[in-house]
């Protein structure tokens, strides 16, 4: 630990960037796992690049620290019209922009910036649309172009969004990393200097930390933004030390070269738990790994077969072996950290005898032959699909089912599953906006059951679909919760999936880090964190 | 001499074209294109995929893309990274000094330790020292870099706290890059503390990367020396009554150096290859780590450009070695 503590005090004299007063400066070092593409979350899709932009920016609304609840951001409050089609946002006044060598802001954040930022992603003729590649993957994935009818400036501090259809998760979408507010004035300055690419490389935002410098593939430096509207961060400096290897991150934590380490090796978890200098935090990830039965193909069109398979596989043994402590068995298609998670649901027990009986009832007393697709790659919700498939294969053989494991290259694999070529296929999902709709409608609704859609069970069940579509059209959270809870009951009865596991995400922290909260979205945020000296 | 050099240079051109073609083809044979690899579970609508592919020019026939690429390369344009949208050349130039600094120190370490060890082993052939050096160099040669690196980190950095775990410079210091060589930049900025810190950070990666070349140099020096020591002129030199040190230093070493220099030159390729692993372990911001990420992200232009530039460096060094060879040994330049 000595290096960092010394660093906080003495080193500043030798530094250009860390200009805070020497004695008090608190520098938090986060050993991040990779290099960002740039500093604009609009054009990126990876957690690594979200992590580096979040300190800099604010959205209109944001997720509370450590949760999935949407709270005010640059918008102090908002109203939804009776018909659910118009959202009016009232912007916070006196919000200051960061500055750098190229840019000294002359005004506070206002409605022009909001319009500028959304139009950049939305309108193809926007002068900055093509900057940094111009592929706004998340904006498109969340169907924003279909959803948005217009965005208008009512006055300097009021913006009105009009939608084409009612979409309750819209407000949660706006809290996602892809929707930050950038400075229209900074853009104008860069345009004059003919340096428009800089907007995503030397970012200017309204967030709690101001970007200082990025040494490619090595270090990213931020300093606390004094006039931040939420109050200055307790930390004075925030440093990302890019360290791609997990074993080395752990070594750096032990040697006192960093304070917070993400994604530890599962093999190191035991040692970390025992280490008195380290706090090991864990949280169920906002994800689910599952095995989908293609209900459009025999014999999985028969619900008895699907239930039988749910009982034939020893889920706990599979999860223990494959996740090695970094996963918990799943009973619902949504993770337990998400609102509306139905705790009352009982999972199918592991009972090969009953499974056999059910199979016999369905006309397969001697079992059958089928395929079992497994991902060729490690995913956040499933560290080793091949191993999992082999264990399932062995369990299935005990009830007379001969399953052949099928693998393709990842892109091909996903395409073929979405086309519905499989009989049984493994996949999973990581939540985007923390809304149950993002799992239940996107993965199990009728709209997604079409060939090429993400409902790979190809399960279109009217009773279920009605509930999740109705929930999408309802803006009241309590009413939506009821609908989703009911939908989970139907899901379990009809068993289009074998829900396998939610992965457990770990973070290792040095003991002097205070108030760090794990983010259910798997993003790492540092506003609110403090260091004990 | 000039003709000799020209012949060597003309041989570089087909190699250069071959490397360009192979990297271009090989990375495209890896399944998944730059757009597909960043799409997660959600997938991507086919229309959008086509649109994005079109924007990146990936929808054109392969030969068309290749000709475009070659055309660009000949004009000195290596294209733009698909991920960061920066010019490939500028990214390479930013990162390459870090790799070069590390590789140069590793080579220095290998030579400074390997050469004397090889000489002494040859002179005291059959002694404990000889067996020791040969045993150690065989071990060093077969050492997996990743394991060796982690072992050293755990022992020296975590256990003893003598060296930093990873990185290039203590986070306290921020030195504006001028040459990109940390040792030079820190000195130019007059930051002696930072200079020591940079040197400190270099020790472990230098040893890890230098281990294989060290083993090679030591073994090569030993066998070359043994061969030379058996020559008639050595016996003559000894018979003339020259001091032992002079015989070894002047007469034997000079002649034994020829194969050793060749081997050192060939190690440049090994070093740059080894740098990929070493940089990953030590979070060293060089081209090795960058290339690995480019492969993962299917960043075609970055990978092609990076490999091409590295290949050019290796070819240039080999060319220099060939020329140096001629300087050291007149027989070679006169025979052609």
UniProtKB/TrEMBL annotation, chain A:
Which GO MF terms are attached to this record? peptide transmembrane transporter activity
What Pfam family is a match for this entry? Answer: SBP_bac_5
Q: Which intervals hold domain Solute-binding protein family?
A: 69-447
Give the keywords, sorted: Signal
Does the record's keyword annotation contain DNA-binding? no
Q: Which domain of life is it from?
A: Bacteria
Task: Tell me which InterPro entries the record gives.
Answer: Peptide/Ni-bd, SBP_5, SBP_5_CS, SBP_5_dom
Can you say where in the cell this protein is located? Periplasm
Give GO BP annotations, semicolon-separated.
dipeptide transport
Q: What is this protein called?
A: Dipeptide transport system substrate-binding protein
Automatic annotation (TrEMBL), chain B:
Matching PROSITE patterns, A to Z?
ABC_TM1
Naming one, the record's GO cellular component terms include:
plasma membrane
Q: Name one GO molecular function term.
A: dipeptide transmembrane transporter activity
**Cross-referenced Pfam families:** BPD_transp_1, BPD_transp_1_N
UniProt keywords, alphabetically: Cell membrane, Membrane, Plasmid, Transmembrane, Transmembrane helix, Transport
What membrane topology does this protein have? Multi-pass membrane protein
What residue ranges are annotated as transmembrane?
12-30, 102-124, 145-165, 198-218, 256-282, 302-328
Which SUPFAM superfamilies does the entry mention? Answer: MetI-like (SSF161098)
Q: What is this protein called?
A: Peptide ABC transporter permease
Which family, according to the similarity comment? Belongs to the binding-protein-dependent transport system permease family.
Is Cell membrane one of the keywords UniProt gives this record?
A: yes
Coiled-coil region: none
Q: Which organism is it from?
A: Azospirillum argentinense
Q: Where in the cell is it found?
A: Cell membrane
Give the superkingdom in one word.
Answer: Bacteria
CDD domains, per database record = TM_PBP2 (cd06261)
Show where the ABC transmembrane type-1 domain sits: 96-321
């Amino acid at each position: 630990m000595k290096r960092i503590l010394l660093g906080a005090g003495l080193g500043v004299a030798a530094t250009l960037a860390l200009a805070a007063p020497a004695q008090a400066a608190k520098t938090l070092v986060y050993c991040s796992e990779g290099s960002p593409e740039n500093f604009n979350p609009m054009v990126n899709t990876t957690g690594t690049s979200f992590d580096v932009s979040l300190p800099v920016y604010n959205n209109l609304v944001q997720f509370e620290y450590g949760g999935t609840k949407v709270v005010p951001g640059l918008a102090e409050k908002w109203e939804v019209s009776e018909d659910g089609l118009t959202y009016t946002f009232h912007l916070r006044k006196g919000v200051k922009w960061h500055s750098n060598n190229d840019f000294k802001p002359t005004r506070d954040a206002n409605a022009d910036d909001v319009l500028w930022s959304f139009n950049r992603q939305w309108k193809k003729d926007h002068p900055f649309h093509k900057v940094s590649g111009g592929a706004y993957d998340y904006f498109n994935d969340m169907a924003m172009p279909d959803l948005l009818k217009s965005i208008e400036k009512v006055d300097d501090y009021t913006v009105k969004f009009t939608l084409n259809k009612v979409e309750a998760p819209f407000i949660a979408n706006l809290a996602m990393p892809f929707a930050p507010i950038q400075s229209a004035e900074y853009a104008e300055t860069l345009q004059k200097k003919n340096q428009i690419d800089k907007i995503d490389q030397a970012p200017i935002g309204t967030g709690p930390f101001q970007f200082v410098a990025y040494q490619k593939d090595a270090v990213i430096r931020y300093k606390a933004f004094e006039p931040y509207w939420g109050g200055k961060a307790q930390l004075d400096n925030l440093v990302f030390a890019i360290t791609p290897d997990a074993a080395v991150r752990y070594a750096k934590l032990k040697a006192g070269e960093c304070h917070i380490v993400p994604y530890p090796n599962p093999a190191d978890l035991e040692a970390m738990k025992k280490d008195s200098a380290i706090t090991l935090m864990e949280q169920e990830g906002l994800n689910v790994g599952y095995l989908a039965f293609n209900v459009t193909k025999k014999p999985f069109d028969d619900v008895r077969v699907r239930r039988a398979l749910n009982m034939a596989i020893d889920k706990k043994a599979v999860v223990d072996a494959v996740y090695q402590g970094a996963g918990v068995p799943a009973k619902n298609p949504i993770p337990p950290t998400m609102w509306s998670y139905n705790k009352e649901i009982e999972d199918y027990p592991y009972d090969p005898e009953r499974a056999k009986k059910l199979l016999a009832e369905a006309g397969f007393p001697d079992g059958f032959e089928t395929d079992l697709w497994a991902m060729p790659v490690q995913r956040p919700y499933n560290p080793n699909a091949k191993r999992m498939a082999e264990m399932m294969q062995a369990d299935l053989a005990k009830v007379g089912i001969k399953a052949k494991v099928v693998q393709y290259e990842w892109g091909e694999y996903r395409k073929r599953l979405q086309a519905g070529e499989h009989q049984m296929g493994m996949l999973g999902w990581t939540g985007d906006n923390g809304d149950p709709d993002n799992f239940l409608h996107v993965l199990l609704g009728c709209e997604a059951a079409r060939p090429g859609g993400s409902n790979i069970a190809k399960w279109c069940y009217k009773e279920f679909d009605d509930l999740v579509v109705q929930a999408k059209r309802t803006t009241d959270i309590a009413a939506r919760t009821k609908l989703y809870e009911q939908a989970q009951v139907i899901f379990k009865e009809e068993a289009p999936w074998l829900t396998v596991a939610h992965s457990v995400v770990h973070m290792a922290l040095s003991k002097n880090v205070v108030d760090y909260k794990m983010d259910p979205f798997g993003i790492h945020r540092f506003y609110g964190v403090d260091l004990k000296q | 001499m000039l003709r000799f050099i020209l012949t060597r240079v003309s041989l570089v051109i087909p190699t250069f074209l071959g490397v360009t073609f192979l990297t271009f083809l090989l990375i495209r044979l890896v399944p998944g294109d730059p757009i597909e690899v960043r799409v997660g579970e959600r997938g991507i609508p086919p229309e959008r995929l086509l649109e994005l592919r079109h924007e990146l020019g990936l929808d054109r026939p392969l030969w068309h893309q290749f000709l475009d690429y070659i055309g660009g390369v000949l004009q000195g344009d290596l294209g733009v990274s698909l991920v960061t949208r920066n010019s490939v050349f500028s990214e390479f130039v930013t990162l390459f000094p870090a790799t070069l600094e590390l590789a140069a120190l590793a080579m220095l370490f290998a030579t400074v330790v390997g050469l004397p060890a090889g000489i002494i082993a040859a002179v005291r052939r059959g002694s404990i020292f000889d067996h020791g050096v040969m045993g150690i160099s065989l071990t060093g040669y077969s050492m997996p870099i990743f394991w060796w690196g982690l072992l050293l980190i755990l022992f020296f950095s975590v256990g003893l706290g003598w060296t930093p775990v990873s990185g290039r410079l203590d986070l306290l210091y921020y030195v504006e890059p001028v040459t990109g060589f940390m040792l030079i930049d820190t000195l130019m900025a007059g930051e002696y503390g930072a200079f020591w810190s940079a040197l400190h950070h270099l020790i472990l990666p230098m040893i890890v990367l230098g281990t294989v070349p060290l083993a090679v140099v030591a073994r090569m020096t030993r066998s070359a020396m043994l061969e030379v020591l058996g020559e008639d002129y050595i016996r003559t030199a000894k018979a003339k009554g020259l001091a032992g040190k002079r015989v070894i230093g002047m007469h034997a070493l000079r002649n034994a150096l020829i194969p050793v220099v060749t081997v050192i030159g060939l190690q440049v390729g090994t070093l740059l290859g080894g740098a990929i692993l070493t940089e990953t372990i030590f979070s060293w911001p060089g081209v090795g780590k960058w290339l690995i990420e480019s492969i993962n992200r299917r960043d075609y232009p970055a990978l092609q450009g990076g490999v091409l530039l590295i290949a050019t460096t290796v070819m240039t060094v080999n060319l220099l070695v060939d020329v140096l060879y001629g300087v050291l040994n007149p027989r070679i330049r006169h025979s052609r």
